[in-house]
From TrEMBL:
The lineage of its organism: Eukaryota, Metazoa, Chordata, Craniata, Vertebrata. This is MOT14 protein. PANTHER family: MONOCARBOXYLATE TRANSPORTER (PTHR11360), MONOCARBOXYLATE TRANSPORTER 14 (PTHR11360:SF239). The gene is Slc16a14. It is found in: Membrane. Keywords: Membrane, Transmembrane, Transmembrane helix. One of its GO terms (molecular function) is monocarboxylic acid transmembrane transporter activity. Residues 37-502 form the Major facilitator superfamily (MFS) profile domain. One of its GO terms (cellular component) is membrane. The chain crosses the membrane at residues 33-55, 75-96, 103-121, 127-148, 160-180, 192-210, 321-343, 358-376, 388-405, 411-434, 446-466, 478-496. It is a multi-pass membrane protein. It comes from the Eukaryota.
Amino acid sequence: MYASREDIGYDFGDDSKVGSKTVKPNPNIDGGWAWMIVLSSFLVHILIMGSQMALGILNMEWLQEFNQSRGLTAWVSSLSMGITLIVGPFIGLFISMCGCRKTALIGGILNALGWILSAYASNVHYLFLTFGVTAGVGSGMVYLPAVVMVGQYFQKRRALAQGLSTTGTGFGAFLMTALLKYLCTEFGWRNAMFLQGAISLNLCVCGALMRPLSHKHVVNEKYVVRSNIDDNQAKALSHSAETIKSNGVLSEEPEKKEEAANEVLDNVQHIENGSNSRSGRNMYGLRILKTVSQLMLTVRKGFAIWYSSYFGAASLFTNRVFVAFVIWALFAYSSFVIPFIHLPEIVKQYNLSSQNHIFPLTSIIAIVHIFGKVILGIISDLPCISTWNVFLMANFSLVTCILTLPLMQTYISLAVVCALIGFSSGYFSLMPVVTEDLVGTKHLANAYGIIICANGISALFGPPFAGWIYDITQKYDFSFYISGLLYMVGIIFLLIQPCIQKKQPREKSTEEAQV
Protein backbone atom coordinates (compact mmCIF):
# COMPACT_ATOMS: atom_id res chain seq x y z
CA MET A 1 0.00 0.00 0.00
CA TYR A 2 1.37 3.40 -0.87
CA ALA A 3 1.70 5.48 2.24
CA SER A 4 1.99 9.21 2.49
CA ARG A 5 4.54 11.20 4.45
CA GLU A 6 1.97 11.30 7.24
CA ASP A 7 1.55 7.52 7.18
CA ILE A 8 5.22 6.57 7.41
CA GLY A 9 6.53 9.54 9.38
CA TYR A 10 8.69 10.72 6.49
CA ASP A 11 11.67 12.81 7.61
CA PHE A 12 13.15 15.23 5.13
CA GLY A 13 16.42 15.48 7.01
CA ASP A 14 19.52 13.57 5.95
CA ASP A 15 19.30 10.37 7.97
CA SER A 16 21.28 8.22 5.60
CA LYS A 17 24.28 8.31 7.92
CA VAL A 18 22.42 7.84 11.17
CA GLY A 19 22.66 4.08 11.24
CA SER A 20 20.81 0.95 10.31
CA LYS A 21 17.11 0.58 11.20
CA THR A 22 15.73 -2.60 12.75
CA VAL A 23 12.04 -2.94 11.82
CA LYS A 24 10.04 -4.82 14.46
CA PRO A 25 6.50 -6.13 13.95
CA ASN A 26 3.88 -3.51 14.76
CA PRO A 27 1.70 -4.57 17.73
CA ASN A 28 -1.36 -2.92 16.12
CA ILE A 29 -1.37 -5.34 13.16
CA ASP A 30 -4.12 -7.97 13.71
CA GLY A 31 -4.86 -6.46 17.12
CA GLY A 32 -4.93 -3.30 19.22
CA TRP A 33 -5.95 -0.27 17.18
CA ALA A 34 -6.75 -2.56 14.23
CA TRP A 35 -10.18 -3.25 15.74
CA MET A 36 -10.86 0.50 15.99
CA ILE A 37 -10.14 0.64 12.26
CA VAL A 38 -12.73 -2.12 11.75
CA LEU A 39 -15.23 -0.11 13.81
CA SER A 40 -14.50 3.04 11.77
CA SER A 41 -14.94 1.15 8.48
CA PHE A 42 -18.15 -0.44 9.81
CA LEU A 43 -19.63 2.99 10.57
CA VAL A 44 -18.53 4.30 7.15
CA HIS A 45 -20.38 1.45 5.45
CA ILE A 46 -23.51 2.22 7.50
CA LEU A 47 -23.49 5.93 6.66
CA ILE A 48 -22.48 5.67 2.99
CA MET A 49 -23.36 2.30 1.47
CA GLY A 50 -26.34 1.79 3.78
CA SER A 51 -27.79 5.18 2.87
CA GLN A 52 -27.34 4.48 -0.84
CA MET A 53 -29.14 1.14 -0.53
CA ALA A 54 -32.09 3.00 1.04
CA LEU A 55 -32.43 5.49 -1.83
CA GLY A 56 -35.49 3.64 -3.13
CA ILE A 57 -37.50 5.55 -0.49
CA LEU A 58 -36.30 8.92 -1.78
CA ASN A 59 -36.66 7.79 -5.39
CA MET A 60 -40.43 7.38 -4.89
CA GLU A 61 -40.61 10.85 -3.27
CA TRP A 62 -38.74 12.40 -6.21
CA LEU A 63 -41.08 10.72 -8.72
CA GLN A 64 -44.08 12.31 -7.00
CA GLU A 65 -42.43 15.71 -6.48
CA PHE A 66 -40.93 16.35 -9.93
CA ASN A 67 -43.23 14.21 -12.17
CA GLN A 68 -40.33 13.02 -14.33
CA SER A 69 -39.85 9.64 -16.02
CA ARG A 70 -38.53 6.71 -14.00
CA GLY A 71 -35.42 6.52 -16.18
CA LEU A 72 -34.48 10.17 -15.61
CA THR A 73 -35.26 10.11 -11.87
CA ALA A 74 -33.23 6.93 -11.37
CA TRP A 75 -30.16 8.84 -12.60
CA VAL A 76 -30.03 10.71 -9.25
CA SER A 77 -29.50 7.51 -7.25
CA SER A 78 -27.25 5.90 -9.82
CA LEU A 79 -25.07 9.03 -10.10
CA SER A 80 -24.52 9.03 -6.34
CA MET A 81 -23.70 5.31 -6.26
CA GLY A 82 -21.67 5.39 -9.45
CA ILE A 83 -19.54 8.43 -8.68
CA THR A 84 -18.81 7.09 -5.19
CA LEU A 85 -17.04 4.19 -6.87
CA ILE A 86 -15.88 5.75 -10.16
CA VAL A 87 -13.66 8.29 -8.38
CA GLY A 88 -11.72 5.39 -6.82
CA PRO A 89 -8.54 5.74 -8.97
CA PHE A 90 -8.37 9.48 -8.28
CA ILE A 91 -8.95 8.94 -4.56
CA GLY A 92 -5.96 6.56 -4.74
CA LEU A 93 -3.90 9.59 -5.79
CA PHE A 94 -5.19 11.57 -2.80
CA ILE A 95 -4.29 8.70 -0.48
CA SER A 96 -0.78 8.50 -1.94
CA MET A 97 -0.24 12.22 -1.29
CA CYS A 98 -2.29 13.06 1.81
CA GLY A 99 -2.91 9.78 3.60
CA CYS A 100 -6.19 8.04 4.42
CA ARG A 101 -7.12 10.20 7.41
CA LYS A 102 -7.05 13.60 5.68
CA THR A 103 -8.78 12.20 2.60
CA ALA A 104 -11.62 10.79 4.72
CA LEU A 105 -12.05 14.03 6.70
CA ILE A 106 -12.44 16.10 3.53
CA GLY A 107 -14.82 13.50 2.08
CA GLY A 108 -17.05 13.55 5.17
CA ILE A 109 -17.55 17.32 4.86
CA LEU A 110 -18.32 17.05 1.12
CA ASN A 111 -20.83 14.24 1.64
CA ALA A 112 -22.74 16.16 4.33
CA LEU A 113 -22.73 19.28 2.15
CA GLY A 114 -24.25 17.31 -0.75
CA TRP A 115 -27.12 16.02 1.39
CA ILE A 116 -27.87 19.46 2.87
CA LEU A 117 -27.81 21.28 -0.50
CA SER A 118 -30.11 18.62 -1.99
CA ALA A 119 -32.82 19.59 0.49
CA TYR A 120 -33.31 22.81 -1.53
CA ALA A 121 -33.64 21.09 -4.95
CA SER A 122 -36.10 22.65 -7.36
CA ASN A 123 -35.78 19.96 -10.07
CA VAL A 124 -34.13 16.64 -10.85
CA HIS A 125 -31.19 18.26 -12.64
CA TYR A 126 -30.32 20.19 -9.46
CA LEU A 127 -30.12 16.86 -7.65
CA PHE A 128 -27.71 15.57 -10.30
CA LEU A 129 -25.17 18.18 -9.19
CA THR A 130 -25.74 18.32 -5.43
CA PHE A 131 -26.63 14.74 -4.54
CA GLY A 132 -25.16 12.84 -7.49
CA VAL A 133 -21.81 14.64 -7.86
CA THR A 134 -21.10 16.44 -4.57
CA ALA A 135 -22.33 13.76 -2.17
CA GLY A 136 -20.98 11.05 -4.49
CA VAL A 137 -17.43 12.43 -4.56
CA GLY A 138 -17.52 12.91 -0.78
CA SER A 139 -18.67 9.32 -0.29
CA GLY A 140 -15.85 8.03 -2.48
CA MET A 141 -13.26 10.00 -0.50
CA VAL A 142 -14.36 8.22 2.68
CA TYR A 143 -15.22 4.77 1.32
CA LEU A 144 -11.86 3.84 -0.28
CA PRO A 145 -9.73 4.83 2.77
CA ALA A 146 -12.09 2.81 4.99
CA VAL A 147 -11.45 -0.34 2.93
CA VAL A 148 -7.72 0.26 2.44
CA MET A 149 -7.03 0.87 6.13
CA VAL A 150 -8.53 -2.50 7.09
CA GLY A 151 -6.24 -4.15 4.52
CA GLN A 152 -3.23 -2.36 6.05
CA TYR A 153 -3.97 -3.33 9.64
CA PHE A 154 -4.76 -7.03 9.07
CA GLN A 155 -2.66 -9.87 7.65
CA LYS A 156 -3.85 -13.16 9.17
CA ARG A 157 -7.60 -12.45 9.46
CA ARG A 158 -8.14 -10.15 6.50
CA ALA A 159 -11.29 -11.85 5.20
CA LEU A 160 -12.95 -11.84 8.63
CA ALA A 161 -11.97 -8.21 9.28
CA GLN A 162 -13.26 -7.08 5.87
CA GLY A 163 -16.41 -9.15 6.43
CA LEU A 164 -17.10 -7.53 9.81
CA SER A 165 -16.47 -4.01 8.53
CA THR A 166 -18.55 -4.38 5.38
CA THR A 167 -21.52 -5.78 7.32
CA GLY A 168 -22.19 -2.11 7.90
CA THR A 169 -23.75 -2.06 4.43
CA GLY A 170 -26.43 -4.52 5.56
CA PHE A 171 -26.99 -2.83 8.91
CA GLY A 172 -27.06 0.53 7.17
CA ALA A 173 -29.55 -0.57 4.52
CA PHE A 174 -31.86 -1.87 7.25
CA LEU A 175 -31.46 1.12 9.58
CA MET A 176 -31.40 3.85 6.92
CA THR A 177 -34.46 2.44 5.14
CA ALA A 178 -36.44 2.66 8.37
CA LEU A 179 -34.93 6.05 9.26
CA LEU A 180 -35.56 7.69 5.86
CA LYS A 181 -39.08 6.26 5.73
CA TYR A 182 -39.83 7.74 9.18
CA LEU A 183 -38.22 11.10 8.42
CA CYS A 184 -40.03 11.43 5.08
CA THR A 185 -43.36 10.58 6.72
CA GLU A 186 -42.93 12.94 9.67
CA PHE A 187 -40.98 15.85 8.18
CA GLY A 188 -41.09 15.49 4.39
CA TRP A 189 -38.27 14.43 2.09
CA ARG A 190 -36.54 17.84 2.10
CA ASN A 191 -36.15 17.99 5.88
CA ALA A 192 -35.22 14.31 5.83
CA MET A 193 -32.27 15.02 3.53
CA PHE A 194 -31.21 18.00 5.69
CA LEU A 195 -31.20 15.82 8.81
CA GLN A 196 -29.37 13.05 6.97
CA GLY A 197 -26.69 15.59 6.05
CA ALA A 198 -26.20 16.39 9.73
CA ILE A 199 -25.91 12.68 10.50
CA SER A 200 -23.34 12.30 7.71
CA LEU A 201 -20.96 14.66 9.52
CA ASN A 202 -20.13 11.65 11.70
CA LEU A 203 -18.04 10.49 8.73
CA CYS A 204 -15.45 13.03 9.90
CA VAL A 205 -15.28 11.20 13.24
CA CYS A 206 -14.74 7.93 11.38
CA GLY A 207 -11.96 9.56 9.37
CA ALA A 208 -10.28 10.81 12.54
CA LEU A 209 -10.13 7.21 13.81
CA MET A 210 -8.10 6.16 10.74
CA ARG A 211 -4.76 6.51 12.48
CA PRO A 212 -1.90 5.72 10.10
CA LEU A 213 0.36 2.80 10.91
CA SER A 214 3.31 4.34 12.77
CA HIS A 215 6.81 2.95 13.04
CA LYS A 216 7.76 4.50 16.36
CA HIS A 217 10.14 1.66 17.11
CA VAL A 218 12.21 2.72 14.11
CA VAL A 219 12.07 6.45 14.94
CA ASN A 220 13.05 5.90 18.58
CA GLU A 221 16.04 3.86 17.52
CA LYS A 222 17.04 6.71 15.20
CA TYR A 223 16.91 9.17 18.07
CA VAL A 224 18.89 6.81 20.30
CA VAL A 225 21.64 6.61 17.69
CA ARG A 226 21.59 10.40 17.31
CA SER A 227 21.87 10.89 21.08
CA ASN A 228 24.79 8.47 21.20
CA ILE A 229 26.50 10.44 18.46
CA ASP A 230 25.89 13.70 20.36
CA ASP A 231 27.34 12.17 23.55
CA ASN A 232 30.42 10.99 21.70
CA GLN A 233 30.89 14.44 20.17
CA ALA A 234 30.61 16.08 23.62
CA LYS A 235 33.14 13.67 25.07
CA ALA A 236 35.53 14.34 22.21
CA LEU A 237 35.23 18.12 22.70
CA SER A 238 35.87 17.90 26.43
CA HIS A 239 38.84 15.63 25.82
CA SER A 240 40.33 18.09 23.29
CA ALA A 241 39.84 20.98 25.74
CA GLU A 242 41.75 19.12 28.43
CA THR A 243 44.55 18.40 25.97
CA ILE A 244 44.83 22.09 25.08
CA LYS A 245 44.95 23.02 28.75
CA SER A 246 47.75 20.56 29.39
CA ASN A 247 49.75 22.14 26.57
CA GLY A 248 49.53 25.56 28.25
CA VAL A 249 47.29 27.26 25.72
CA LEU A 250 44.49 27.79 28.27
CA SER A 251 46.69 28.45 31.28
CA GLU A 252 45.73 32.11 31.57
CA GLU A 253 44.66 33.72 34.83
CA PRO A 254 40.99 33.22 35.82
CA GLU A 255 40.32 36.98 36.03
CA LYS A 256 41.42 37.62 32.43
CA LYS A 257 39.31 34.73 31.23
CA GLU A 258 36.21 36.10 32.98
CA GLU A 259 36.73 39.60 31.52
CA ALA A 260 37.15 38.18 28.01
CA ALA A 261 34.03 36.07 28.44
CA ASN A 262 31.98 39.09 29.57
CA GLU A 263 33.15 41.13 26.57
CA VAL A 264 32.17 38.31 24.17
CA LEU A 265 28.71 38.01 25.78
CA ASP A 266 28.11 41.76 25.47
CA ASN A 267 29.09 41.70 21.80
CA VAL A 268 26.83 38.69 21.12
CA GLN A 269 23.85 40.35 22.84
CA HIS A 270 24.41 43.56 20.86
CA ILE A 271 24.56 41.64 17.57
CA GLU A 272 21.44 39.63 18.47
CA ASN A 273 19.42 42.76 19.32
CA GLY A 274 20.41 44.41 16.06
CA SER A 275 19.71 41.44 13.84
CA ASN A 276 16.57 40.01 15.54
CA SER A 277 14.19 41.67 13.10
CA ARG A 278 16.15 40.65 10.02
CA SER A 279 16.79 37.07 11.20
CA GLY A 280 13.13 36.69 12.20
CA ARG A 281 12.00 37.61 8.72
CA ASN A 282 14.59 35.34 7.15
CA MET A 283 13.62 32.39 9.37
CA TYR A 284 9.92 32.90 8.60
CA GLY A 285 10.66 32.92 4.87
CA LEU A 286 12.83 29.82 5.19
CA ARG A 287 10.06 27.96 7.05
CA ILE A 288 7.53 28.81 4.31
CA LEU A 289 10.01 27.73 1.65
CA LYS A 290 10.72 24.47 3.48
CA THR A 291 7.01 23.72 3.91
CA VAL A 292 6.29 24.37 0.23
CA SER A 293 9.26 22.23 -0.86
CA GLN A 294 8.15 19.37 1.40
CA LEU A 295 4.60 19.62 0.03
CA MET A 296 5.84 19.62 -3.57
CA LEU A 297 8.07 16.63 -2.88
CA THR A 298 5.15 14.72 -1.35
CA VAL A 299 2.87 15.56 -4.30
CA ARG A 300 5.52 14.54 -6.84
CA LYS A 301 6.23 11.29 -5.00
CA GLY A 302 2.54 10.39 -4.68
CA PHE A 303 1.80 11.24 -8.31
CA ALA A 304 4.81 9.22 -9.53
CA ILE A 305 3.64 6.15 -7.59
CA TRP A 306 0.05 6.59 -8.79
CA TYR A 307 1.10 7.11 -12.44
CA SER A 308 3.49 4.15 -12.50
CA SER A 309 0.78 1.85 -11.12
CA TYR A 310 -1.59 2.65 -13.98
CA PHE A 311 0.66 3.48 -16.94
CA GLY A 312 4.20 2.40 -16.03
CA ALA A 313 6.11 -0.73 -17.00
CA ALA A 314 4.81 -2.48 -13.87
CA SER A 315 1.23 -1.48 -14.66
CA LEU A 316 -1.60 -3.37 -12.97
CA PHE A 317 -3.11 -4.02 -16.39
CA THR A 318 -0.26 -6.41 -17.29
CA ASN A 319 -1.91 -8.88 -14.88
CA ARG A 320 -4.45 -10.78 -17.03
CA VAL A 321 -6.46 -12.13 -14.09
CA PHE A 322 -6.74 -8.60 -12.71
CA VAL A 323 -7.99 -7.37 -16.11
CA ALA A 324 -10.62 -10.16 -16.08
CA PHE A 325 -11.55 -9.07 -12.57
CA VAL A 326 -12.10 -5.50 -13.84
CA ILE A 327 -14.32 -6.78 -16.70
CA TRP A 328 -16.36 -8.79 -14.20
CA ALA A 329 -16.78 -5.68 -12.01
CA LEU A 330 -18.18 -3.74 -15.00
CA PHE A 331 -21.22 -6.05 -15.11
CA ALA A 332 -21.60 -7.32 -11.56
CA TYR A 333 -22.61 -4.42 -9.37
CA SER A 334 -25.69 -3.30 -11.30
CA SER A 335 -27.28 -6.71 -10.70
CA PHE A 336 -27.10 -6.04 -6.97
CA VAL A 337 -28.14 -2.38 -7.12
CA ILE A 338 -31.18 -2.71 -9.42
CA PRO A 339 -33.32 -4.65 -6.87
CA PHE A 340 -32.70 -2.02 -4.18
CA ILE A 341 -33.75 0.85 -6.43
CA HIS A 342 -36.76 -0.76 -8.16
CA LEU A 343 -38.10 -3.33 -5.66
CA PRO A 344 -40.51 -0.80 -4.04
CA GLU A 345 -42.05 -0.16 -7.48
CA ILE A 346 -42.20 -3.92 -8.27
CA VAL A 347 -43.99 -4.59 -4.98
CA LYS A 348 -46.53 -1.87 -5.80
CA GLN A 349 -47.17 -3.45 -9.24
CA TYR A 350 -47.87 -6.86 -7.67
CA ASN A 351 -50.22 -5.29 -5.06
CA LEU A 352 -48.01 -6.50 -2.19
CA SER A 353 -47.56 -3.12 -0.54
CA SER A 354 -49.39 -4.10 2.67
CA GLN A 355 -47.13 -7.13 3.26
CA ASN A 356 -44.01 -5.24 2.19
CA HIS A 357 -44.87 -2.43 4.61
CA ILE A 358 -44.72 -4.89 7.53
CA PHE A 359 -41.30 -6.26 6.52
CA PRO A 360 -39.75 -4.66 3.40
CA LEU A 361 -38.00 -6.92 0.92
CA THR A 362 -34.99 -4.58 0.84
CA SER A 363 -34.65 -5.05 4.61
CA ILE A 364 -34.60 -8.83 4.10
CA ILE A 365 -31.71 -8.44 1.65
CA ALA A 366 -29.92 -6.13 4.08
CA ILE A 367 -30.27 -8.39 7.14
CA VAL A 368 -29.20 -11.61 5.39
CA HIS A 369 -26.42 -9.63 3.66
CA ILE A 370 -24.87 -9.10 7.11
CA PHE A 371 -24.72 -12.82 7.88
CA GLY A 372 -23.53 -13.59 4.35
CA LYS A 373 -20.47 -11.34 4.69
CA VAL A 374 -19.45 -12.71 8.08
CA ILE A 375 -20.03 -16.38 7.19
CA LEU A 376 -18.27 -16.14 3.82
CA GLY A 377 -15.38 -14.30 5.51
CA ILE A 378 -15.01 -17.04 8.15
CA ILE A 379 -15.16 -19.79 5.51
CA SER A 380 -12.54 -18.03 3.35
CA ASP A 381 -10.11 -17.77 6.29
CA LEU A 382 -10.11 -21.54 6.77
CA PRO A 383 -6.73 -23.01 5.72
CA CYS A 384 -8.26 -25.71 3.50
CA ILE A 385 -10.59 -23.32 1.61
CA SER A 386 -9.67 -21.13 -1.39
CA THR A 387 -10.99 -17.57 -1.18
CA TRP A 388 -11.18 -17.48 -4.98
CA ASN A 389 -13.47 -20.55 -5.09
CA VAL A 390 -15.78 -19.14 -2.40
CA PHE A 391 -15.94 -15.89 -4.36
CA LEU A 392 -16.91 -17.69 -7.59
CA MET A 393 -19.57 -19.87 -5.92
CA ALA A 394 -21.22 -16.80 -4.35
CA ASN A 395 -21.27 -15.11 -7.77
CA PHE A 396 -22.97 -18.11 -9.39
CA SER A 397 -25.60 -18.14 -6.65
CA LEU A 398 -26.29 -14.41 -7.03
CA VAL A 399 -26.66 -14.45 -10.82
CA THR A 400 -29.10 -17.38 -10.52
CA CYS A 401 -31.24 -15.38 -8.08
CA ILE A 402 -31.23 -12.31 -10.36
CA LEU A 403 -32.44 -14.38 -13.33
CA THR A 404 -35.22 -16.09 -11.32
CA LEU A 405 -36.50 -13.01 -9.43
CA PRO A 406 -38.90 -11.84 -12.23
CA LEU A 407 -40.62 -15.26 -12.09
CA MET A 408 -41.66 -14.72 -8.45
CA GLN A 409 -44.95 -12.87 -7.95
CA THR A 410 -45.90 -13.70 -4.35
CA TYR A 411 -44.45 -12.09 -1.24
CA ILE A 412 -43.09 -15.37 0.18
CA SER A 413 -41.31 -16.36 -3.03
CA LEU A 414 -39.88 -12.86 -3.44
CA ALA A 415 -38.72 -12.93 0.20
CA VAL A 416 -36.90 -16.25 -0.34
CA VAL A 417 -35.12 -14.97 -3.46
CA CYS A 418 -34.24 -11.69 -1.73
CA ALA A 419 -32.76 -13.63 1.20
CA LEU A 420 -30.59 -15.63 -1.23
CA ILE A 421 -29.54 -12.39 -2.96
CA GLY A 422 -28.56 -10.95 0.43
CA PHE A 423 -26.48 -14.00 1.40
CA SER A 424 -24.79 -14.42 -1.99
CA SER A 425 -23.89 -10.74 -2.21
CA GLY A 426 -21.82 -11.27 0.94
CA TYR A 427 -18.93 -11.88 -1.48
CA PHE A 428 -18.39 -8.08 -1.43
CA SER A 429 -16.37 -8.62 1.75
CA LEU A 430 -14.03 -10.88 -0.24
CA MET A 431 -13.34 -8.34 -3.01
CA PRO A 432 -10.53 -6.50 -1.16
CA VAL A 433 -9.02 -9.85 -0.15
CA VAL A 434 -9.10 -11.22 -3.71
CA THR A 435 -7.68 -7.93 -5.02
CA GLU A 436 -4.83 -8.04 -2.49
CA ASP A 437 -4.09 -11.66 -3.40
CA LEU A 438 -3.86 -10.67 -7.08
CA VAL A 439 -1.67 -7.55 -6.80
CA GLY A 440 -0.24 -7.49 -3.26
CA THR A 441 -0.65 -5.06 -0.35
CA LYS A 442 1.64 -2.48 -2.00
CA HIS A 443 -0.77 -1.94 -4.91
CA LEU A 444 -4.02 -2.46 -2.98
CA ALA A 445 -5.19 1.18 -2.93
CA ASN A 446 -4.78 1.76 -6.67
CA ALA A 447 -5.96 -1.73 -7.67
CA TYR A 448 -9.07 -1.62 -5.51
CA GLY A 449 -9.69 1.90 -6.77
CA ILE A 450 -9.86 0.49 -10.31
CA ILE A 451 -12.20 -2.31 -9.21
CA ILE A 452 -14.66 -0.01 -7.47
CA CYS A 453 -14.42 2.39 -10.43
CA ALA A 454 -15.64 -0.45 -12.68
CA ASN A 455 -18.37 -1.20 -10.12
CA GLY A 456 -19.29 2.47 -10.21
CA ILE A 457 -19.74 2.43 -13.98
CA SER A 458 -22.01 -0.59 -13.51
CA ALA A 459 -24.01 1.17 -10.79
CA LEU A 460 -24.18 4.35 -12.85
CA PHE A 461 -25.85 2.82 -15.89
CA GLY A 462 -27.72 -0.12 -14.31
CA PRO A 463 -30.72 1.55 -12.59
CA PRO A 464 -31.41 4.09 -15.39
CA PHE A 465 -31.21 1.24 -17.91
CA ALA A 466 -33.78 -0.72 -15.88
CA GLY A 467 -36.03 2.35 -15.70
CA TRP A 468 -35.65 2.94 -19.45
CA ILE A 469 -36.61 -0.69 -20.19
CA TYR A 470 -39.67 -0.27 -17.94
CA ASP A 471 -40.72 2.91 -19.76
CA ILE A 472 -40.70 0.91 -23.04
CA THR A 473 -42.15 -2.45 -21.94
CA GLN A 474 -44.02 -1.45 -18.74
CA LYS A 475 -42.26 -4.41 -17.08
CA TYR A 476 -39.06 -4.86 -15.08
CA ASP A 477 -38.60 -8.49 -16.23
CA PHE A 478 -36.29 -7.73 -19.16
CA SER A 479 -34.12 -5.49 -16.98
CA PHE A 480 -33.29 -8.41 -14.67
CA TYR A 481 -32.77 -10.82 -17.56
CA ILE A 482 -30.38 -8.55 -19.43
CA SER A 483 -28.39 -7.54 -16.34
CA GLY A 484 -28.21 -11.21 -15.27
CA LEU A 485 -26.85 -12.29 -18.66
CA LEU A 486 -24.23 -9.53 -18.66
CA TYR A 487 -23.28 -10.58 -15.14
CA MET A 488 -22.82 -14.16 -16.42
CA VAL A 489 -20.44 -12.86 -19.10
CA GLY A 490 -18.28 -11.30 -16.39
CA ILE A 491 -18.19 -14.56 -14.42
CA ILE A 492 -17.10 -16.44 -17.57
CA PHE A 493 -14.14 -14.03 -17.89
CA LEU A 494 -13.15 -14.88 -14.31
CA LEU A 495 -13.25 -18.59 -15.14
CA ILE A 496 -11.28 -18.35 -18.40
CA GLN A 497 -8.26 -16.27 -17.29
CA PRO A 498 -7.04 -18.50 -14.41
CA CYS A 499 -7.12 -21.48 -16.80
CA ILE A 500 -4.97 -19.54 -19.32
CA GLN A 501 -2.54 -18.56 -16.54
CA LYS A 502 -2.15 -22.23 -15.52
CA LYS A 503 -1.66 -23.42 -19.10
CA GLN A 504 1.19 -21.03 -19.94
CA PRO A 505 3.81 -22.51 -17.54
CA ARG A 506 2.99 -26.02 -18.77
CA GLU A 507 3.49 -24.98 -22.39
CA LYS A 508 6.84 -23.43 -21.50
CA SER A 509 7.97 -26.55 -19.67
CA THR A 510 7.13 -28.78 -22.68
CA GLU A 511 9.08 -26.45 -25.00
CA GLU A 512 12.10 -26.59 -22.66
CA ALA A 513 11.88 -30.39 -22.56
CA GLN A 514 11.94 -30.52 -26.37
CA VAL A 515 14.98 -28.24 -26.49
